[in-house]
Amino acid sequence: MTHSQDKLAYRLFAASLLLVAAALTQACRTAPALSAGIDVAGIDKSVAPGDDFNAYANGAWLNKTEIPADKSAYGVSAILGDENKKRLRSLAEESAKGGATTSEDAKKVGAYYSAYIDEAGIESKGIAPLKPQLDAIAAIASLKDLSRAIGASLRADVDPLNNTNFETPNLFGVWIAQGLDDPSKNYPYLLQGGLGMPDREYYLSASPHMAELRKQYQQHVAATFQLAGLADPAARAARVVALETKIAKAHATRLESEDVKAAVAWKSVDLAAKAPGLDWPALLEAAGLKDAPTIIVWHPKAIPGLSALAAKEPLDAWKDWLAYHAVEGSAPFLPKAFVDERFNFYGKALTGAPQMTPRWQRGIDWLNTDLGWALGKLYTDKYFPAESKTKAQAMVADIVKAFGLRIDALTWMSPETKAKAKQKLGTLKVGVGYPDKWPDYSGLEIAKDDALGNNERADLFEYRRQIAKLAQPVDKGEWWMIPQVVNAVNLPLQNALNFPAGILQPPYFDASADNAHNYGSIGAVIGHEISHSFDDMGAQFDGEGRLANWWTTQDLDHFRAAGEALAAQFDSYRPFPDLAVNGHQTLSENIADVAGLLATYDAYKLSLGGKPDDVKEGFTGDQRFFLSFGQSWRSKSREALLRRRIATDGHAPAQYRADAPRNLDAWYAAFSVQPNQKLYLAPEKRVRVW
User: Fold this and answer.
1) 224 in any annotated domain
2) Are residues 417 and 557 in the same domain?
3) I need a labelling partner for 623 at 20 to 30 A (CA). Which of 145, 268, 357, 533 fits?
4) How many domains does the chain divide into?
């Protein structure tokens, strides 16, 4: 579950990127005169809760709020994210001043930030910092050279669920994690990539909207070539888009990418036979993978198709493709003309944002990407006290306990499956705030006058850090999300959760608010993350993170039937006349929404100790619980971004997720929802997955 996209949204390893904040349970139980916590002024009482719960909970706020010009979406997560960036900016600026007590990592943070915001220095260099890379691409003269170039460009930054980190794509993505069948060792995973737009549908869909974006994309590619001073930019752009269209046709679809069981383990020596075309020995050597005996291929149909294209398509087309993406990926660190052109397509066209964010904010974003752990250490040292971590851990433990009680109470699940589910829940490893062990940046060179070089070295440093794990034991406590982000994640292969410090604060948790608010707001999303261990993907992994079926046939059939009912529910949501939500594409997140809300409602009731909750602000405890949940999904989005997310994201739009309570009996009682209202579901139609 997420309110915003994140570069590290690795669906295999990160079942959900969830914007969540952990409530501090003990504070909720002991603080006097606790407030209701809900935003009464944001409610639109002219809307019946049973007709549109999101509009009821958030309508007044939605009506009066404008999306800022530099954003494509706006809501509580964006507001909190902006506040966090101000804190991070102060840390970066202080680090840039240096001093005798400044740590080496802090000095690197300061130098990186200083180099990025030095626009005059970047302008003075022009495209010269990129010339060695462009010259190397121009010198490619054979398939072996091309294979080496592709291997050398591989990075651990491709999202297998969305197919590619489309703004800086490589032909393949590489990720290092424990094996699907062997949790005792780390393996490289090979993923499809190579697209400059978000998904294959952007190249292949017949819709007028996608056709217009293709036209704008080709114009952007041509403009990028022209800025780089490369001859015949229009013809080069046509070749790049034609090649990427063929790459898109070879790609697995968005839904196919979610099929964990489709992944296969291939011996490295067999790649040439199983995926002919590329010079695989040359590619693997350049990628630092020549000593990896086995590679897990996440997209076994796509990889052979991409390899075949490498040999089939003209070498000049591939050189144009490499050159374009070399410039495109470096654009944020090049002169303003490159930055503006990149924003014209990736900002305005793809997300609808009319204005770029300030440069200092973009600098913080890149710091988070390239030196995120160093910046995160500074952040947690100053803004996340030890007592907050302790209290957040207690809140998580409460909801884990409630989820276990729900498993015990299931009438449809056999004792055998229940025992396995409880075993998995009992071995769930929860990380709160920050990791026990911080990554070491001592081998990374950062200079205060080399913005592009800093990014390139940091990117390669992180890739090599990941590759080095192939020779190391599996670390079950490894974190996959930096601690300053406003997000959270479930990790199926580790049977683990990460709740970063960045989201452990208001508005998702409010120490002055009562249990109804805190459980309904962020308690529900903690429950969501726990539930991901048991959603349609998480349920395929056992307590060791091994891909293994621990269900009886009858139990699994019941579980899948419930999932199909929920998918059908979301298929009916249509934000635009020509575009509906894909219930199967968003199924994992929808299951976790409903299951997490059910478990957290139970935990909320248990927290009251058998006593009825007070009426506050004119609302009962149950009403406040559900209102807090609905208001946690408060968000507005521009049409371009919303269309993109429906096409590529595993999360349903926020306005429909806010309506998840329609599956809980308690919501009907709380708001007297009637059969003639739009969200009403007959009791037998309400989905109860867990």
Assistant:
1) yes
2) yes
3) 533
4) 2
